[in-house]
Amino acid sequence: MAKKMTQEEWRTFVSHSTRTGKLSTVREDGSPHIAPIWFVLDGDSFVFNTGKDTVKGRNLARDGRVALCVDDDRPPFSYVVLQGSAEISEYADGPEEILTWATRIGARYMGAERAEAFGRRNAVPGELLVRVPIAKVIAQAGVAD
Known about the structure:
- This protein is an alpha+beta fold.
- It has helices at residues 7-15, 55-62, 95-110, 112-122; strands spanning 3-4, 21-26, 32-37, 40-42, 45-51, 65-72, 78-85, 87-90, 127-141.
- It is built from 4 helices and 9 strands; from the N terminus they run βαββββαβββααβ.
């Protein structure tokens, strides 16, 4: 039987290793758009980068509502869904802030030795820093137990 994760459990789960998230945004016609992202937790928010002109970047600028699903697709299967409304910063708003977060994200997914290069690649004009304060959490462990 599935077990609801505690806050500590879901925070550990979504931060584990290089688990990617599947981000759902709202298209102009109201339909969902889903794309994989790299992200990090920061307090009660999750943070990621995306291009301003990507589908998700355009969707977020128009409608900030998002859901992020992080899962373990191995038995007994577990998942966490985080929901909230995005807060967007552009390069012009603070290139150093974007560099800081892009580097942290790079460290998680690419390793410390490649973090700075990843950060510099993503802290450029046209890139967005997206912070999503977490408004709702659904977290289940051992779904197939």
